[in-house]
């Protein structure tokens, strides 16, 4: 149909709808007819007004953004790029959650004013049930990219809009969100749908990569030059070759549907088999693999693995167990803390297996790695979650009080005792979880009493004669090497074995592979109302820092930096850090190898100046003021030059 006859058909369909209160499929294409039908069934009137109650308040919006922080983090740069492409077309770029609630809008300020009047602002819902046919709502209903122009909108009041939206899917096909461009309805936005679909693919690929860090990934295409582009297929698979996730292009290239995920092995789809690729990759990590499909066609691929690859020569399993899909896996409290680090995830998976089985858990890790948060999440993920979680820091309790605090005491048991007695923390944890932090610091005499409680499952309060039964799950934590404490006689061996049912170790921050996502999570918690990001150069510096205080120190740095940032700023950069923080972050620079030049001489003026800065920092042993004085530049210029170099790809 040409444009005038389309417009005529649409007018007829609308008249029919208004006059007869029914949809006429005669004048509409199938998809539009389905959507109008759904809008009608939702009780919406084409000439009706929208209900303002469908907009989230600030708190609701903050919660929504916190819940989707990872999607937001990966989408924001793409949205900015997308907006550059439509800058002069009176448009906004919008990200909505899977229910059609707008989470972020980026756009033309003039049009944003207008958009605000039609509720195209964060917090508003554009679900079909609320607003009838529109690109966001209809893309959700149809689970495909959709453009809705002018009068195709079900509500007449939205007829001045043209919108194009594409779903963003996870590697297992779960709807994560909707990307949309909405603008004034004018003829001639022919490329917008393609643009928004490509941008959605970019976000999907970034998310799939981020979510699959713990898996092996093949990036493939039917041309070698296509690998690494937005058109590439990405397939994520387990070490024993089960396909666990794939983007749309990969499904097409491999000739499989989503239903094949978790039930198909790559060896059945591509030759030569997995072990040969792993061996090839080990010999030449960046080489392009040439793979054959069963129909004889060729695919080119690069293998990526952030985790250590399978040992060479490992025999393929005869009957590998079918895996559980990541999305179908738990959405418990532990998984909410999981930001993708493989060691952290392994610890969480192991703890999940023993929850509710009466096996004590010992969490080890440096101070500030999040042991208590982990223990609390483990409690909330297990069958005792409706019971209490009682956390005791054994190092912080005064020795004179620790016994009565833990075991309770009878009324008037000693001078200063509570008149009515105390139940004690062990009994407070009844039917819940007792978390003993810094267990390595518990005095030896108390270790003996604790051991008795754990063996007999009952407590005798101080000054009482009768024992009281207790029933709690036990999680202990320590930053000490308990085994060594046992060897040195500071910790009872029998208690150590009793506590150590399952021992897991949480990685220090400097060794985590998920810094970007973790940062995003922390920022979303600190600033739920601002979609924040860290400048890439600064994030690289964070990634190289030693972080002796681990997550506690990092969260505190981010918190201070966010507080110092102007309200309208959303990218955290060097200038938002305090002087002390900048100094501390640059401290390791003099220890690290000079990053730019390596063994080759500097190739440009910028490299030359950077190499001079690193040398000066080396000479001043990290003292920035001294290095700047030696170079004859201000401290600000030194930071700026370092920052600029770090944000270069
Ligand atoms: N996954 C996380 N997300 C957000 N914040 C976190 C996370 N893990 C830790 N933190 C932050 O780090 C701080 C320290 O966490 P936590 O007290 O659980 O560490 P810890 O290992 O038990 O420390 P310590 O050994 O000193 O007792 C918390 O107050 C919190 O601010």
Characterize the main sheet. Answer: 5 strands, antiparallel
Strand content: 5-15%
Shape category:
globular
CATH architectural arrangement of the largest domain: 2-Layer Sandwich
Number of DSSP strand runs:
19
InterPro entries: AAA+_ATPase (IPR003593), AAA_lid_NorR (IPR058031), GAF (IPR003018), GAF-like_dom_sf (IPR029016), Homeodomain-like_sf (IPR009057), HTH_Fis (IPR002197), P-loop_NTPase (IPR027417), PAS (IPR000014)
Protein name: Sigma-54-dependent Fis family transcriptional regulator
Domain Sigma-54 factor interaction: 349-563
Keywords: ATP-binding, DNA-binding, Nucleotide-binding, Transcription, Transcription regulation
Describe this structure in words.
By secondary structure, the protein is α/β, with parallel strands linked by helices. It contains 25 helices and 19 strands. Helix 4 packs antiparallel against helix 8 (192-211) and helix 23 (605-619) crosses helix 24. The strands form 5 sheets. Strands 2-1-5-4-3 form a 5-stranded antiparallel sheet, with helices on both faces. A 5-stranded antiparallel sheet has the order 8-7-6-10-9. It has a 5-stranded parallel sheet with strand order 12-13-16-11-17. A hairpin with a 5-residue loop joins strand 1 and strand 2 (102-107). The chain folds into 4 domains: 34-202, GAF domain (Beta-Lactamase); 212-305, Beta-Lactamase (2-Layer Sandwich), CATH 3.30.450; 342-505, Rossmann fold (3-Layer(aba) Sandwich); 513-647, no CATH class. The longest helix has 20 residues, at 192-211.
């Amino acid at each position: 149909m040409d444009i005038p006859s389309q417009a005529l058909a649409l007018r007829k369909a609308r008249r029919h709808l208004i006059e007869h209160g029914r949809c006429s499929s005669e004048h509409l294409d199938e998809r539009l007819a389905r959507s109008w039908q759904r809008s009608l069934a939702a009780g919406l009137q084409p000439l009706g007004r929208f209900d303002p109650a469908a907009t989230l308040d600030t708190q609701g919006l903050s919660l929504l953004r916190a819940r989707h922080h990872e999607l937001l983090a990966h989408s924001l740069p793409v949205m900015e790029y997308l907006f550059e492409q439509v800058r002069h077309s009176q448009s906004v770029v919008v990200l909505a959650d899977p229910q059609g609630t707008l989470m972020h809008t980026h756009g033309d300020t003039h049009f944003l004013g207008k958009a605000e009047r039609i509720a195209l602002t964060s917090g508003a819902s554009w679900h079909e049930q609320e607003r009838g046919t529109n690109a966001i709502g209809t893309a959700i209903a149809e689970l495909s990219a959709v453009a809705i122009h002018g009068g195709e909108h079900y509500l007449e009041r939205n007829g001045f809009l043209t919108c194009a939206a594409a779903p963003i899917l996870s590697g297992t096909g779960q709807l994560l969100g909707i990307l949309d461009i909405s603008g004034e309805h004018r003829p001639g936005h022919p490329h917008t749908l393609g643009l928004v679909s490509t941008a959605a693919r970019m976000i999907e690929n970034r998310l799939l990569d981020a979510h699959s860090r713990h898996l092996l990934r093949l990036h493939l295409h039917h041309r070698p030059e296509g690998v690494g582009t937005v058109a590439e297929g990405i397939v994520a698979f387990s070490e024993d070759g089960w396909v666990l996730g794939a983007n749309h292009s990969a499904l097409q290239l491999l000739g499989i549907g989503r239903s094949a995920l978790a039930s198909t092995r790559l060896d059945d789809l591509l030759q030569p088999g997995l072990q040969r690729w792993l061996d090839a990759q080990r010999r030449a990590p960046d080489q392009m693999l040439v793979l054959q499909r069963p129909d004889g066609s060729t695919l080119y691929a690069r293998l990526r693995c952030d985790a250590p690859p399978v040992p060479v020569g490992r025999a393929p399993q005869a009957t590998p167990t079918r895996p559980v899909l990541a999305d179908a896996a738990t959405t418990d409290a532990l998984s909410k803390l999981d930001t993708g680090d493989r060691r952290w995830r392994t610890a969480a998976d192991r703890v999940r297996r023993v929850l509710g089985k009466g096996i004590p858990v010992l969490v080890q890790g440096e101070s500030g790695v999040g042991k208590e948060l982990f223990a609390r999440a483990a409690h909330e993920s297990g069958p005792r979650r409706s019971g209490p979680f009682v956390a005791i820091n054994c190092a912080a309790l005064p020795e004179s009080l620790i016994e009565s605090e833990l075991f309770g005491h009878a009324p008037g048991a000693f001078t200063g005792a509570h008149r009515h007695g105390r139940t004690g923390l062990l009994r407070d944890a009844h039917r819940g979880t007792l978390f003993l932090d810094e267990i390595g610091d518990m005095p030896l005499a108390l270790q003996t009493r604790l051991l008795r409680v754990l063996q007999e499952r009952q407590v005798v309060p101080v000054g009482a004669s009768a024992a009281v039964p207790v029933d709690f799950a036990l999680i202990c934590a320590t930053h000490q090497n308990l085994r060594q404490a046992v060897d040195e006689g500071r910790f009872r061996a029998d208690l150590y074995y009793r506590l150590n049912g399952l021992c897991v170790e949480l990685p220090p921050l400097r060794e985590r592979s998920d810094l970007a996502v973790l940062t995003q999570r922390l920022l979303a918690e600190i600033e739920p109302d601002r979609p924040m990001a860290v400048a890439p150069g600064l994030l690289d510096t964070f990634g190289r820092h030693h972080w002796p205080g681990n997550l506690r120190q990092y969260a505190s740095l981010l918190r201070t930096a966010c507080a110092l940032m102007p309200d309208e700023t959303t990218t955290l950069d060097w200038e938002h850090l305090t002087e002390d923080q900048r100094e501390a972050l640059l401290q390791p620079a003099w220890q690290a190898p000079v990053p730019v030049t390596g063994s080759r001489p500097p190739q440009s003026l910028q490299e030359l100046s950077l190499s001079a800065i690193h040398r000066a920092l080396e000479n001043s042993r990290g003292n920035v003021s001294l290095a700047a004085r030696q170079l004859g530049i201000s401290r600000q210029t030194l930071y700026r030059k370092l920052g600029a170099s770090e944000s270069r790809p």
